[in-house]
Write a structure and sequence with these properties.
Layout: E1 4-12, H1 18-28, E2 32-44, E3 47-53, H2 56-67, E4 74-77, H3 83-95, E5 101-103, H4 118-128, E6 134-135, H5 139-146, H6 154-165, E7 171-174, E8 183-190, E9 194-200, H7 210-223, H8 228-244
Parallel strand pairs: 1-2, 1-4, 4-5, 5-6, 6-7
Antiparallel strand pairs: 2-3, 7-8, 8-9
């Protein structure tokens, strides 16, 4: 059987993040990718110029069209721009009984541009976080979901992961990419797993789409039958390699994308 994953997220017109990064990641990891577009962005490597939300009713139609036809193995959720869209996604996942769901609570672009309005944060926390297999916030996103300051050390990251887990997901991965230090350390927490995942911090400015890439790589692992811990470990390894190869690309005038196809593009 062909492994299939679906990304429910916003489109990045520059191709480095969002739906485009997710589909590239799925393809690189041997998974057929389908998509439900929740928002359009006028975006490039230098920033986000405009955001246009897809109507919630149409998002629901996209979900029904995809899930009624494809035997979906895993779902990745990214940028959701409005409470009614969040509700449509939550209702759709419940309607189609999706269990392997990865939620990347996208709120701010790598450029620093806000992507999600304040009134959507509570809807993500209340409707989606309790319904997913794993939620993968970075440090600012974890803080915003909890209404707390950004974690400043590993102890604070662990404490915030515990509070996020109490909201109802099966697992939490708090990503430490925004922290300093020689290593990029993420903390994975579930009822049965409590571990730090570290990798050398890659010196590159081409970091556009890192969060999208990691979460979609986790979904790809789940779609191919890995258990959650193994999927997270493999996804972090894939992202580390994509970052290490990122300077081999010359894309745009700002923060370029990671190299999703580093194993295939040579020279």
């Amino acid at each position: 059987m062909t492994a299939i994953a679906v990304t429910i997220a916003g489109s990045d017109s520059g191709g480095g993040a969002g739906i485009q990064a997710d589909l590239k990641t799925f393809s690189a990891l041997g998974v057929y990718g389908a998509s439900v577009v929740t928002a359009l962005t006028a975006q490039n490597t230098q920033g986000v110029a405009a955001i246009h939300a897809v109507p919630a009713g149409f998002v629901g139609q996209e979900i029904d069209a995809v899930f009624s036809d494809l035997a979906v193995d895993a779902v990745k959720i990214g940028m959701l721009g409005a409470p009614d869209v969040i509700a449509a996604v939550a209702d759709g996942l419940d309607r189609w009984r999706q269990a392997k769901v990865v939620l990347d609570p996208v709120m701010v672009a790598a450029s620093g541009d806000p992507l999600v309005p304040d009134d959507a944060v509570a809807a993500i926390r209340d409707r989606l976080v309790p319904a997913v297999m794993i939620v993968t916030p970075n440090l600012p996103e974890a803080a915003r979901l909890l209404g707390e300051p950004v974690a400043a050390d590993r102890a604070a990251m662990e404490a915030q992961a515990e509070r996020l887990l109490a909201l109802g997901p099966q697992a939490v991965l708090v990503k430490g990419g925004h922290a300093g230090g020689a290593e990029s350390a993420d903390f994975l927490l579930s009822a049965s797993v409590r571990r730090w995942l570290s990798a050398p911090r890659i010196a590159t400015d081409n970091t556009h789409g890192t969060g999208c890439t990691l979460s979609s790589a986790i979904a790809a692992g789940l779609a191919r039958g890995r258990d959650l811990e193994a999927a997270v470990i493999a996804a972090k390894d894939y992202l580390t390699q994509a970052l290490a190869a990122a300077d081999g690309l010359s894309i745009g005038k700002g923060r370029g994308p990671v190299h999703h196809f580093h194993n295939w593009w040579k020279g």
